[in-house]
Structures are given as C-alpha cells and as structure tokens.
## 1
Amino acid sequence: MFTVYGEITPTMACTYDPAQCAADTGTPNDAVRFLLGDTELSCVEMQDEEIAAQYSTTPTTLTQYQRVYQTAALCATATYRRYARLATVSAGGNSVNPGPRAELWKKIADDMANAARVASDLSGIGVISASRPRMLPTWGDYLD
C-alpha cells in the first residue's frame, strides 16, 4: 500500500514466471513481459493489470500467440508515450533526461508492432505503431 494525496491506494501486482514466457503456451502476462524485457520486478514498466487490460482488447478470434504480440505492441507504445511526454529535470547538480528511455521504448514499440504484423499473418489486422505516419500527398504533388 502507498498513499496518494493522503489516501491509501492498493499497489498493483507485478509478477513474472520465466517458465511461462512462451507466447503460444505460457500465460499472456508472462509472455508479454518477456517480449518487452520487462522482467526485473523491482522496476517494472507495466503492471500485470495493465497488461491484462490490453490483452483483453485484442480480438478473441486470434490465437494466443497473435494476441500476445499485439498486446506487447500496445504496451510498448503506451510506455513510449509515457516517457516521451516527460521533460528533463535538473536539481542540485543532478539531471534526469527521459529522452533516451523514450527512444528505446519507441524502438521496442516499433519492433513489437512489426512482430505482431508477422505473427498475425493476416491482412486487415491493425496494429499500433509508434512511428509517425507518412504525410498524405497534397494537390501540389500531382502538378508538374
């Protein structure tokens, strides 16, 4: 338990069992945590409840393997966005710059989105990517 604004708030769970990390046969939470490299329980990036919530949003018509990879892409994108919005903070001669960590999670998010596309092996399955979309052509692109 910890307090937020004087209220007692229950902490969320963070578990990991390396024996259950296979995307097709393990538990979805452990498999996603393994794919993200988020296995050091003293400093996890995602809570079990967050992973489970994202897993529940993936289509149930897909296999567990496909859903795990899509969940990993969603979780990595969320973690990237969390760090990307933070500013560098300096105090007392110390500085914390979240930029490199955001870039690392952007790379992981892009890797997981690509892996999810390969795992789905189906056309029409949408997967989130942290990359910026290509700009749409303008009328000027069609003029000589």
## 2
Amino acid sequence: MTKSEKINNSVFDNAYLSVYINDYVKKFRHFNSDEFIISIYGLKKFINEGDMVLVRFFEELKQNKITIENESNKESVNEIDITCKNITKDTSYNFKHQVQYLPSIIDISCKTEIPVVGIIIT
C-alpha cells in the first residue's frame, strides 16, 4: 500500500495526522503492543471539546491502545506535566515537558490545520 493510499483510507481529512498515525503510531504498535494512558496536565483549557480534528485524533490513538487524558488547567503552556502509564506492565513515568518555540508551533498549526494542542501532543 502506498502512502497516498494510506492517507485516502484513513479516518482523517488531515493528511499530516494520517501519516502520523499510519507511519508512526501503527509502526510503534508492531514493536510494542502494551496499552498506555497518557495524562497531560495543563492543556485542558486550551482544548476546544468540539474540535473534530482532535476528537478523531484521540479516537484513533485510543483504537491503537493509547488513551490521552487532558487534566487540569494552567495559565500558560510553557511547561506541562505528563504521566505515562503502561497499563499492561503496571508501570508509570512522570516527566515535565517545556513547550518551546510557541510561535513556530502556531505557524505549523496554521499550515497543517492541526490544532496547536495536537502539535504539542504529537
């Protein structure tokens, strides 16, 4: 199957997210079949619950055994706390992510039509 066929067969109208799911997430699933829950603290107020691109993106990740949970709010997005739980192995990792180059992220968001939060999560 060619990349263009993969994109056309995807649930996404967004070619960039289709490539991300098909060529990154699904390849990862071949290597690792564990189930994960990723809790992200600090982005909730920046997410529009009606954003269909994010809704589909989260659904597609969930179908690939990666659940994204958006927890709590922060006033800014310069640093977010992330907890990655491996449900299969009952392990958990916590780390902080510094969001850098926000103007570039916004520019990429505009060019790809992927919400800023989607860019940060990927």
